[in-house]
Design brief:
This protein has strands at residues 20-23, 34-37, 40-46, 60-65, 71-75, 87-90, 96-100, 108-116, 119-126, 131-135, 141-145, 175-178, 184-187, 194-199, 208-214, 273-275, 278-279, 290-296, 304-309, 314-318, 324-328, 338-340, 343-348, 352-356, 362-366, 392-397, 403-407, 414-419. It is mainly beta. It starts with 19 loop residues before the first strand and ends with a strand.
């Protein structure tokens, strides 16, 4: 990732609509900062987890928890890491359990854990190689797919040069949302900016494309930077033997050439905002870097698809048949979502982690800077400031209501916010 593709974020001294808190120790004997207020207070434990010496984090992009309380970290792998494994697993105390996933080195991005019947699966997005893939908890492949070649946006036309013949379009998927019926949604956050809705007949069936929606308004170009170098040809089926199928890393049809329109990793600048989190004159049905998504099941009778429309500085709520409902205000650069009871956690790339209540109103922001942060590219971990986030990219609640935060910084940073 280049710094230009995700804009520079710290706006020192900006007035916040809701409070954020960093204060001295209150409910712990440790020297760690306590973030939050009232019933939402957390001990801030940076650099959580006992990382083996042969694994060096790259950008830590996503985090999830399995039914055993194991925590999974998905990272791009540091440039001189002896191990290429991009998935690192810890127990609930932070002890290393295992690692896998060398095929995602450089492209590791979204990761979602789904319990389907009695079996748990991991879904991964690899934005460098242009694939999505479903795996067991130990990394064995169920299926692997490249770009959605059946989507109308990738059909051939005059002058078409991109994957599937679509002029200039690229495919760099960023995150998953999965419904109880096994339908899932993929946001092409760094590529075409479209959303893709798939169905699965069962847990091992190859997915079918249901619908393409979102994308930039008519006449607006996608992306603004370099495109992916290759990989991820459409429809590569998983082999079931742990090896990449035809659409896996290093295989399949090449994507749009580097520098082609639509290859931008970060969003184009949104229009000036009308109200916080709601850019002016942006159609609700359009998406600009739909970076994260989640099926919100807090009301089981009324499931909602949430999309982190990061380039438009907003969260948009959709029905599960892909129709926009309304916009949730108050975020700057929302990346993804996770729920615990009635609360949603939103990692926001602008140096904070936001909590939303059952009505999607902001409770508070955690870890906003009170002094200037170091550059995200620093290679000195001591530069990071305790109690402050730099660029939160992924976050989850664990089974006990603690929060784990993975940050988009060059040497990786995993923080546990322990509920106090």
């Amino acid at each position: 990732m280049s710094d230009t593709s995700r804009r520079t974020f710290i706006a020192a001294g900006a007035a916040a609509a809701v409070p954020f808190f960093i204060k001295a120790d209150s409910k712990t004997d440790s020297k760690n900062k306590i973030l939050g207020e009232g019933e939402h207070q957390y001990e801030c434990i940076h650099d959580w987890g006992q990382l083996p010496s042969n694994i060096k984090y790259g950008n830590t992009h996503s985090v999830c928890e399995d039914s055993q309380g194991h925590i999974y970290i998905h990272h791009t792998v540091y440039k001189d890491s002896p191990s290429s494994d991009s998935v690192v697993v810890f127990d609930d105390k932070g002890k290393f359990v295992r690692s896998f996933g060398p095929m995602f080195r450089g492209g590791a991005h979204g990761m979602h854990l789904s319990k389907e019947g009695k079996t748990e699966y991991l879904y991964f997005c690899d934005e460098k190689h242009g694939i999505i893939t479903k795996r067991t908890l130990k990394g064995e492949e169920v299926w692997t797919m490249g770009y959605p070649q059946d989507s109308p946006i990738y059909q051939k036309g005059p002058g078409s040069t991109g994957p599937g013949g679509a002029s200039g379009l690229n495919y760099r998927p960023t995150n998953f949302a999965i419904a109880p019926n096994l339908d899932f949604w993929v946001g092409d956050g760094y590529g075409s900016y479209y959303m893709f809705h798939y169905s699965q007949a069962n847990s091992t069936a190859y997915p079918k494309l249901v619908k393409t929606f979102g994308g930039p308004p008519a006449g607006q170009a996608q992306g603004g930077g370099r495109g992916a170098a290759g990989g991820g040809g459409g429809g590569g089926r998983g082999r079931g033997d742990g090896k990449a199928g035809p659409g896996g890393p290093g295989g399949g049809a090449p994507q749009a050439a580097a520098g082609a329109p639509g290859g931008g990793r970060g969003p184009a600048a949104p229009p000036p905002p009308g109200q916080p989190g709601v850019p002016r004159d942006v159609p609700i049905e359009s998406t600009n870097n739909p970076h994260g998504n989640m099926v919100d099941l807090r009301d089981p009778a009324n499931p909602i698809l949430l999309i982190a429309d990061r380039g438009n500085s907003r969260i948009v709520r959709y029905t599960l048949d892909d129709k926009p409902i309304d916009v949730v205000s108050g975020t700057k650069s929302p990346c993804h979502f996770h729920t615990y009871k009635d609360t949603i956690v939103v990692p926001d790339l602008q140096a904070r982690v936001t909590l939303l209540d059952k009505n999607n109103k902001i409770i508070l922001h955690l870890g906003e800077p009170t002094v200037a942060n170091p550059a995200r590219t620093t290679e000195n971990r001591a530069d990071f400031i305790p109690g402050q986030f730099v660029q939160p990219h992924g976050a989850i609640f664990d089974h006990a209501g603690n929060i784990f935060v993975a940050e988009w910084v060059e040497i990786g940073r995993v923080t546990k916010l322990r509920k106090v």
